[in-house]
């Protein structure tokens, strides 16, 4: 009989229908292909003549099979014999703890590198019929001892990656538990830099040279490799050595090194640095020239209406912004990254805040659609607002400095080079958003100030400056973030953007004023009573005073302030629709 799958047979049942008791012999097919008799009985002559489920008695076999052979004694009974089926019972796996042993040998294999007396034991019993406890012997225990064998010391070859001028330290594992001392015979060491190992007794690193022999114990062996800054790459050599112990020697162990360079500012070519330095010098000279002009001609109406102190502050901040790019010539680290953000952020706010509060001041006075508003806004008040904006920026930068994670990250250039980059954290994004908000509010104030008289009406030039700064912020800043890994392109774009913001902004504000001063213009009232810059004479009726024609010169002391002093009552009357910051001097 052949069954679908092989099992370890534990039971055979024959369903005898006619003349039960004729089943006499059962055999199984063993793995060698031989029929093995497992049950050989005489006919059961006295069996009742009823349908019988006969369970064949046998000792369980210790191999899987799916073939059995059943023999019947057909001569033991009159007539013939019938059976309906044969049920085979078994398991897919042998019962745990039972092993076969045909040669009276037991093989014990200890774990690798384990030795000692009585380190293990084996408890067993003998049985000649599986699962029949009545035929099982008493238990016996064997204590096992493992003798030591001198193994060849082992260590895996490895490849390490390090950084120039920075110690590359690694623990390499030496395997050998049989003997307590191993000799490292160095055949070669890296030809560049210093290769050393940690000496536990001396508590220091000892240089290793080709041919050195170092005695050590199994376990971790600490090595250190330092490469000077001018060397990097994958062809700088390797440490090659063998391990020996009691006359046994390992194969060559190789520790190879890949040393990564951080070229830093070397990524910016000398020609680019020279070019940007020339542009820096020209920009600084231009701003210094404007600064000197403001100081020399600060009593001129054109300068006084523009508030010379604010112009001076813008020029000084502009100079700081222009030279701020030189900090990018230092390799990025935590301190340099923090200084970069502080320098450009504070100089930008210092440059933009005077323009912002100046625009707000004009907007507050000339914000009405048709008429001016009598509003007292002194220069001290505007300076306070400028300082508030600066303090807000300082607070954000302090939060970034003390609460932000390390601002430095490293981006690979190729296999052996990586570049240190200042990371743009959420705190820096908050600082940028703060400045964008100031720009948007500035644009709103410029729009409100469009009704100002021409003497005060700088909204066109101020609006152009704010739009100019906004353009650079909105379009160039994302490009700078995208190009942070390409230091030279980033540097050129950064310098160009700063030069553009400072030079163009100051030129837009100051060139019209310089041209007006060179023409000899000053503040006068035209026939409509509007303050303008000009050189012509106007009638006294424009001032609401005498009937004779007089030449009037108007000097604006602080754009729009709140002084109530006038040289005459008639002059106060004629200027009452403005804040009385203007003093009118007349001559017959």
> Tally the helices: what do you get?
9
- Beta content comes to 25-35%
Nearest-angstrom radius of gyration? 50 Å
- End-to-end gap: 143 Å
Which regions contain 5 or more consecutive residues with pLDDT less than 50?
368-374, 537-588
Percent range for helical residues? 25-40%
Average pLDDT, to the nearest integer? 77
Biggest beta-sheet profile: 6 strands, antiparallel
Structural class: alpha+beta
Task: Find the count of extended strands (DSSP E, 2+ residues).
Answer: 24
**What is the global morphology?**
elongated
Describe this structure in words.
The protein is α+β, with helices and mostly antiparallel strands. The chain has helices at residues 270-296, 301-305, 308-323, 334-365, 379-403, 426-448, 459-482, 487-518, 569-574, and strands spanning 2-18, 23-29, 35-40, 52-55, 65-72, 82-91, 116-124, 140-146, 158-163, 168-174, 182-188, 194-199, 204-207, 213-216, 219-226, 238-245, 248-249, 253-260, 408-414, 417-422, 522-525, 531-534, 551-556, 582-587. The chain contains nine helices and 24 strands. Strands 1, 2, 3, 4, 5 and 6 form a six-stranded antiparallel beta sheet that branches. The termini are far apart. Residues 368-374 and 537-588 have low confidence and may be disordered.
